[in-house]
Design the sequence.
């Protein structure tokens, strides 16, 4: 692996940790305490610089506030969701919206579309927290990553390919709440990714899509990585 390449660690379900060569840590969609596939012995970095949230569902934001407090992380999300986590106690937030780019130290993160619902539930009920989103993550010297978040495939994924040319796509493949391998194979083609890191599968029996199934459906030039929680790419 090139020494300047960002390390992407999968922590079960949709929890993904990005660590750049320069030392910036970005944790996406922290769902830890109630996540049956979270690798229990995994030690998160003492300092997490940013938490990125794709949307407001509990399996993506449940541990955002405690992690933000404990690890000193700024929470970055669509405007309404950032505001929600601030009300829940996140000390520092950055709210933005589709098409916007924020610079998280040396990492440029652009918010892109996702086709999924979003709503955050607490004791008072379910709140409007903006729409679901994906992110394009670009760190200097490292391949561009499209982190799709929970989504179905949609034809405007072509625009993401056209605009940002991601080499790596982090895609949900479990089905039921998101794409299954059938849709994810087309998503891979639409964004033009050469490597797929599958997430949001196997957490519960309902999320039945597998990397092997996706691998059988993508073009032969595409690599689908088979990994387990706590594994990282490139390994
Ligand atoms: Ni969701
Ligand atoms: Mn989800």
Sequence:
């Amino acid at each position: 692996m090139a020494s300047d390449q960002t390390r992407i660690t999968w922590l079960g379900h949709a929890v993904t940790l990005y660590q750049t060569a320069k030392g910036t840590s970005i944790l996406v969609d922290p769902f830890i305490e109630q996540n049956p596939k979270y690798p229990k012995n995994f030690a998160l970095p003492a300092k997490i610089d940013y938490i990125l949230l794709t949307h407001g569902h509990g399996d993506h934001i449940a541990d955002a506030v405690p992690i933000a407090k404990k690890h000193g992380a700024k929470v970055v999300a669509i405007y309404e969701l950032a505001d929600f986590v601030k009300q829940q106690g996140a000390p520092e937030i950055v709210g933005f919206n589709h098409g916007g780019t924020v610079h998280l130290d040396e990492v440029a993160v652009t918010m892109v579309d996702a086709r999924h619902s979003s709503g955050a539930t607490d004791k008072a009920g379910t709140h409007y927290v903006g729409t679901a989103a994906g992110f394009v993550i670009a760190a200097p010297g490292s391949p561009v990553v499209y982190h799709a978040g929970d989504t179905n495939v949609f034809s405007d994924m072509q625009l993401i390919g056209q605009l940002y040319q991601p080499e790596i796509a982090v895609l949900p493949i479990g089905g039921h709440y998101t794409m299954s391998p059938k849709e994810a194979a087309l998503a891979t083609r639409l964004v033009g990714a050469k490597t797929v890191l599958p997430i949001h599968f196997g957490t519960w029996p309902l999320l039945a899509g597998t990397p092997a199934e996706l691998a059988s459906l993508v073009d032969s030039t595409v690599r689908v990585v088979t990994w387990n929680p706590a594994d990282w790419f490139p390994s």
Notes: Residues 181-191 form the longest helix (11 residues).
